[in-house]
Amino acid sequence: MASAHDFSFKAIDGAALPLAGFKGKVVLVVNTASECGYTPQYKELEVLWQRYRDRGLVVLGVPCNDFGAQEPGTEAEVKSFCEINYGVDFPLTAKAHVTGKDAHPFYKWAAEVAGEAASPRWNFHKYLVGPDGALAAWFPTKMSPTAKDVTAAIEEALG
What we know:
It contains four helices and six strands.
């Protein structure tokens, strides 16, 4: 597959969520978890979404239970947690694997494109996809979503 637009997730409500629907937009794909030390990053992700969505940024949360079993809830529980605790209204996918043989195809593609070093090592790993579906950048868990490196990459991708 040549671009992120070739992949599809299932939305947290069960509907299809093809990344092709985001052609022309910049997408920050973040594997998330509700019981992680980095969970407060949801607040910063929401800040990015509010700040840049009118310019074409989509923040896409991918709930994941791969690291420390820190996303044990159902999709309904995850959605409720995000809305109540962090005011999240950016799109969320259904729970997905991001590592190993069962990793979602998007994550396998990203690892092929960016190299194994760019693969998620923990929750809140970030991939930035450009308007053309190319992988533009990636950021490790510890980097705040509102860090200068992240916002500069978003600004550049938005043009």
